[in-house]
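Hey, can you fold this?
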Amino acid sequence: MPNAQGRISNLIRFSADDWRLIDDYVKSNYSRKYEYYDASAQSFLDYYPDASSVQFVMTPVNVEYRAIAVYLDPDIHEALVKLANQAGLSLGRVIATAVTHLARSSRND
């Protein structure tokens, strides 16, 4: 359901390590988390444009997660829903992977 800014909320599960990674990246590069979420998800969509390329980058399911609300632009959300459906993956895993994309990429630079 969209919030007052028209963004769509998703309750996503992040590992503690991913959450710290995102937090550190946001503090260094963005003034607001939602700016990071949109930018990271869009970068993920640009980098992994179809379902076949996304299978190997998904967040693992066998680690402990903390639930966090993530607000995304409706167009980005719709693109992630489409990708999840094409890949036969849960939307939550796709969004969690997408919004960690920039932070994880920066760690590997």
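Oh, and this one too while you're at it.
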Amino acid sequence: MRDSEALLRMIFQAARAAGVSRDALAAELNCPPAFLDNPEGRHPHELQAYFWAALEKLTGDVEIGLSLCRHLPGFDGHRLEYVLLSSSTLREGLMFAHRYRRVLSDAMALRLVDGSSGEHLEIQAAAYEGPQRRHTDICVVYAVLRALRIVPLAAPPSRVHLAFEARLSPAVYETLFGCPVVFAAPINRIEIPPGMLDAPLPLADPDIADLHRRMVASKIAPIERQDIVDHIRSALYARSLTHEGVSATLSDLAVLLGVPERRIRDALGDSGTSFRNLLTEIRACVAEHLLRDTNAPLDYVARAAGFMDRTALSRSFGATRGLPPLRYRRQAQARARRAGARTRLRDPEDVLQELKRNADRRLITDRIE
């Protein structure tokens, strides 16, 4: 699962607005500071857990998601917002927002349910497990509540249900959300006042709505192609790390996935890459972890990442990362020290084992359709 750059950018901007140091956060996340300014492309959904854990550590705020809500940027022209605003009613807009939700996040889901006490909107904000998930939940529920306010003269939501326990006084949450809050619910949901979903929206325009929907629908096909590439990448990563170095072949991968080699070539070609390029990127990624988190010699890094020797490592790493391996190591470790983030160097074998465990968790075992 992946999140769009629009979702990540909104959260990063909120953190900066709340006074979080960009460099300190980048060092804690082991990523270039520029990534936090402009996180181009779609990124693994699981990164949210690392992001929130880093924010908790840097701020000491056990409810950092709640603290960031007031700093979330407002309407920023995202495609789904246009779809919602130009719809005839909120019910129609939410239906299409759910249909095209993947342009924002693969993990998000909105579902209208007609219960015994009236209609409510169920919200799945995240798919990863862990204590940090509550932060994603809070921010998404807050953003949805803010979107619901486009209905003129509508009564506020009757009640918000959150799928976790309160860490602060309930009054703090109720003040933010503008209505009573129930905790430890089975699922996040918002109780909708009668008539709110079918009230006409002020900017409704059928022609504009149709245009926006077709534009959003055109963005789904690349996402579906990316699904196949992610599947292949996870399988290749997992297969590679079971060997001495990253040395899996295309035939290895075809056997693991249960598909012809040509199917893999075609899928990668449709997404603008190739098996060779994908393998090169994975080798560079393994090298990056070992350079950043250990002091392993270059000969060891080259062998573990699947390069013939340190010269091949330097040539490939320079081409993909823009600087020689040792300079990358010095800059990454110096950046971590300046930001006061974790600087303890690790055993390289432990790093490789962690990469293997993470690859195994990400690996999708279903066949590519």
